[in-house]
Amino acid sequence: TVLEDLYKHFIESKESTFFIAVRDQLRQASEDMREHARFLKRLEEQKAAIKASQRASDAASTMSAGTVMSAIQGTEGNEDGAGGDDGDGDEGNSDAGKRIFKEAAAIRDVLRVVTLLCKHEGMQDLIRGQSGNDKSVDLMSEVVQYVVALEHMLPTAISMRNVRPLVVATIALHTIDAMVMGPNLEACMHAMHTNLFDLMNRLFIDRKYEGSQSMFNYKVKMRTAMMAIIRTVVRGMPLEDKDLIQSFVNSGFSFETYLMQ
Questions:
Q1: What is the rounded distance in angstroms from the CA atom of residue 175 to the CA atom of residue 124?
Q2: Within 10 Å of residue 208's Cβ, how many Cβ atoms?
Q3: Checking CA distances to 182, which of 50, 73, 92, 105 falls within 20 to 30 Å?
């Protein structure tokens, strides 16, 4: 099969170029999101300051502030972004912001390729590390860190009713689920040593989705993806392995978080 041929190529060539390229793309996108989040935070602070000034200023000051407000409001997407539920409209004028939305489609495609590769059990293991190669990349940890970066985008995106970060976060979570699918016990153990479960706890309880049907729909999709990961990991744990059970408890997983949502 194609997957078997790819696996043999990666093993025999001892070449990590593909894995390094995926890692670098995820890291660049994460840094751009952090930079853009800082930019949007500054805009929100300016917006709040202008509103306060409007309440205390005369008509001339209000007109001046209104000009700035128009510029700020121009950075806010419509309910689902100009491009529909995938939120393909521009949002923010920072260089990082412009890069983010160009990168979004590429990142989605990269994650889908990685998900397909995980249908081969050997590739599942190779994705976590390429032993014997000069350089080794842990793509599971890289994808988790990418979702952490997306998490920081959620408050602003939700306030602007743009679903794009929710869409990409959901795809990334499906990719992680594919990495542990089987269940692959070693992959499940590896996941426990990332901050994946602590991250999912936060995603479950910290975000609000009111005011948009699309937001609600993607909230459900994102939570469904997280529950799929939990089911896979729990299904793969041998109950007689007390150390493994303790590792799972120590990973940050909280039954109360999931049961109460």
A1: 11
A2: 11
A3: 105
